[in-house]
Write a structure and sequence with these properties.
Structural class: alpha/beta
Number of helices: 3
Helix content: 40-55%
Strand order of the largest sheet: 2-4-3
């Protein structure tokens, strides 16, 4: 089946994260997982950690400001779900390219 819609634009990231998952302590058994992509992690890093505006982060990642807003919304929802429900946060691939 042919993919629908517009193809995703490559997202520019500074580096691949060395840590692939965060796991809660004190929860018995194997907790559920919440996934975020590398580009979602980069958007969180730029906007929430480095305090860039969404416009600056968009320019840095080679995307529009609206796309950064959508990426941030999805990543914040996943991280909040993991923190509130004691889930593992797993960082997975995505359509990315390392920034030169």
């Amino acid at each position: 089946m042919k993919p629908r819609g517009r193809p995703k634009k490559v997202r520019l990231v500074e580096k691949i994260p060395q840590i692939e998952q965060f796991s809660p302590r004190g929860r018995p058994g194997r907790p559920d997982e919440a996934e975020i992509t590398i580009d979602q992690l980069e958007a969180l890093r730029l906007v929430d950690y480095l305090k860039m505006s969404q416009g600056e982060a968009a320019k840095s990642m080679g995307l529009s400001r609206q796309t950064i807003g959508r990426i941030l919304k999805a990543s914040r929802r996943s991280v909040a779900d993991a923190l509130i429900n004691g889930k593992i946060i797993r960082i997975v691939g995505g359509k990315i390219e390392l920034r030169k």
